[in-house]
Amino acid sequence: MTRKHFLITATIFILLIFIIFNLALQLKTAKQDAIDAREMELDSKKYEVQLMNITMYAPLSPGAVEGEDFSGDPSLTASGDEVVPGETAAAGPNIPFGTRIYVEGLGWRTVNDRGRLVGPNNIDLAVPTLEESIKFGKQQRLVILQLS
Question: Do both 61 and 77 map to the same domain?
């Protein structure tokens, strides 16, 4: 074998090794992409995103009015849990007690209360003061519901 043939053969051999290595790397990447896509699909079934009407209520505020801000004991939710401003949320009966929700710009809350005016597309968030609830008013925001 001449030196020229040897160099050609060696170059072809090196190129083949490079091609095989590159294909193996692409295959590994494609396999990981498929695994990641499947995990994302499964995770997406754990959440639902909706545009909802958001209001606030202050059952623990000194000026709270029974029938408007609370019913019965103002410190207890409809589920029997304590009202915790900044954590407690009231929702319609279509959202089960214990559901974790994320309200755009306001963070995570737990649905454990109801309200006579809280319908299926409404969320009412417990806050410390009536002033805060009045100032917030009624806003539409994206809500992520963490499904069980």
Answer: yes
Structure tokens at 129: 């003061």
User: What digits encode the pLDDT tens for the residues 16-74?
Assistant: 999 999 999 999 988 887 887 777 777 777 889 999 999 999 999 998 888 888 888 99
Express each pLDDT in 117-129 by its tens digit.
898 999 999 999 9
Count of structural domains, the chain: 2
Instruction: Give the domain extent around 8.
Output: 1-45
Sign, CA torsion 111/116/122/127: negative
**Same domain membership, residue 104 and residue 52:** yes
